[in-house]
Design goal:
Length: 270
């Protein structure tokens, strides 16, 4: 009987601990699954929160006031970004002042960015380093002497969009080269109609893109330009297309000799 008791005890404990281990593993598996589900929920919530925040920031920006101009770039007053980019019933957009920055590093590579999918105009498209507007209500950005107001606005926006410290770029670092006049009605609801000041900047800078504005950045080389543009998986903005087609290559080939290409009194119309 002793042997039977011992046998019974051994089987009892083996069965008991097996059950406990199985229960522990089951609970752990359920916990782990729950933990991962919770982590997934948290990640989803974070993405949704970030998207909502980006959309809210874009909507707030629509209240900023741009500078209205005539076809000769003479100021006519102001209007909100919303009014300046809304396509009217007759298929036009209010003409306003803008700028485009082309940023090159010391090796001569050019930065392009992919606009956030939350942008009101031309979302999720590739373009030059920074495209924006001087604002009517910001002191100094209406200063037309040597395009100083435009340069100040460019410094502000490079900081906001790409996180470039304002200590690394000063207004005098931008090379103002010319202006272009173009109109594109985009999706028929939001479009562009701008006198666009072209600014070129060659400098090594620290970059930390603002995700509500920029979803991707990359530097491209001059000798790979055509290939890299053809491999992009999203369209180009209309102004970038125009400048790429008509002017960019000659400016890029002469970064050290840009002064001879200045056309400060001209407005090129496309």
């Amino acid at each position: 009987m002793k042997n039977v008791g011992l046998f019974f005890s051994a089987n009892f404990f083996e069965s008991y601990f097996s059950t406990k281990i199985f229960s522990f593993l089951l609970v752990f598996k359920m916990y782990r699954r729950g933990f991962f589900n919770l982590a997934k929920v948290i990640r989803t919530y974070s993405v949704q929160t970030e998207a909502a925040r980006a959309k809210q920031l874009q909507e707030v920006a629509l209240n900023e006031n741009c500078i209205l101009v005539d076809i000769n770039d003479r100021p006519l007053g102001m209007a909100s970004k919303k009014d300046c980019h809304r396509v009217s019933l007759d298929g036009h957009v209010k003409l306003h002042r803008a700028f485009s920055v082309f940023l090159f590093n010391s090796s001569g590579d050019m930065l392009i960015q992919r606009r956030s999918k939350h942008k009101i105009t031309f979302p999720d498209t590739y373009t030059n380093a920074c495209c924006s507007h001087p604002l009517y209500d910001i002191e100094g950005e209406r200063n037309e002497l040597n395009a100083l107001g435009i340069r100040r606005a460019a410094q502000r926006r490079l900081n906001y969009e790409l996180g470039i410290p304002t200590t690394q770029i000063r207004p005098e670092n931008f090379h103002y080269i010319t202006r272009i006049h173009y109109e594109d009605i985009g999706n028929g609801i939001w479009g562009e109609h701008e006198i666009d000041y072209i600014l070129i900047l060659q400098k090594d800078v620290d970059i930390k893109p603002n995700p509500s504005e920029v979803s991707e950045i990359r530097f491209i080389r001059r000798n790979n330009l055509n290939r890299e543009i053809s491999l992009l998986d999203a369209p180009l903005t209309p102004w970038f297309q125009l400048i790429l087609k008509h002017r960019l290559k000659i400016w890029w080939d002469n970064l050290k000799h840009l002064k001879k290409f200045e056309e400060l009194d001209n407005i090129h119309r496309f």
